[in-house]
Amino acid sequence: MTAQSPIERAEADTVAYEIRDNVAWVKFNRPEKRNCMSPKLNRRMGEVLDELEFRDDFGVLVLSGEGSAWSAGMDLKEYFRENEAKGLGATRGAQREAYGWWRRLRWYQKPTIAMVNGWCFGGGYGPLFACDLAFCADDAQFGLSEINWGILPGGGASKVAVELLSFRRAMYHAMMGENVDGKTAADWGLVNESVPAAQLEARVAEVAKVLLGKNAVALKATKDAIRRVRIMSYDDAEDYLIRAQEAANSYDNEGRKEGIKQFIDDKTFKPGLGAYDLSKQGA
Ligand code: ACO
Q1: How buried is 245 (Cβ within 10 angstroms: 0-12 exposed, 13-18 middle, 19+ buried)?
Q2: Ligand 1 center to residue 255 CA distance, Å?
Q3: What gap in Å lies between CA 185 and CA 138, rounded to an integer?
Q4: Helices then strands, each counted (H, E), the chain
Q5: In angstroms, what is the span from residue 134 Cα to ligand 1's centroid?
Q6: Whose CA is nearest to atom 21 of ligand 1?
Q7: What is the pLDDT of residues 205-241, one digit of tens each?
Q8: Which residues face 104 on adjacent strands?
Q9: Which residues, 6 or more positions from 152, have their beta carbon under 8 angstroms from its beta carbon?
Q10: Distance 196 CA to ligand 1 centre (A)
Q11: What is the pLDDT of residue 8?
């Protein structure tokens, strides 16, 4: 690739995915642009998430990046400059597409894992936070670089920083524009764990496998509950959680009964030590 012959990647090719071992491995696929998010990529990611969400051939979605980046944030040329030149309508349209798929991902039907293989900047914090869990390579780099090119961390990035970091760390991270590596990101709470790059996919696959062994209705109810109760009063949360479990029962009224049976009657498992055997449900 040269400056004279830049890759014009087709919209359909800006996101790649495969289903393997009951996991949807979805990738930002603009490695030549460090997977920065252009309107095309955002549009395609929205479509891919739509296409996949209710398929029953996978139970966990993993979001990673092709090449050296997870995502270098928003595309400064195609998302910012070119849309600004077209006027407010284009800017708002591009924002809707980007924020739209991050919102979809925050409330996705299946559990989601961010597998951060490399650079993660600015707008990338939107999908990072949208994923339920996050794992990264020790040599991944995380940064709110907005201040370095003259804007505030928008598109939710400031909100993500204060959701995941202490006040002092969020302020330092946003104002200084310095990057942190994977181990620091784990220490700060941006991700669950940081592991050597060579072990990243295996560790994520291991976590996905554990999730695949849990009751899927309970997982969706749980991930939503953890996000929802953050901003509720204790009393509101208490009430929401009662209603949420009762709503979950309308999708699966037998799972928890089977779990209790396997523990109390059959004595085949202990909830304190693992999940009940899903395959016996309805048998
Ligand atoms: N927007 C537009 N183009 C980008 C972006 C981006 N965010 N990130 C990388 N690219 C392009 C480069 O312009 C370059 O294009 P070219 O080949 O046509 O010249 C290509 O991707 C490769 O980038 P390099 O900078 O050559 O890659 P390198 O590996 O040396 O550096 C790094 C990687 C550090 C990620 C660098 O590309 C970078 O700083 N990117 C911008 C990161 C950033 O600040 N993002 C915005 C955050 S703020 C927000 O999202 C709102």
Answers
A1: middle
A2: 47
A3: 9
A4: 12, 10
A5: 22
A6: 33
A7: 999 999 999 999 999 999 999 999 999 999 999 999 9
A8: none
A9: 146, 158, 174
A10: 24
A11: 80
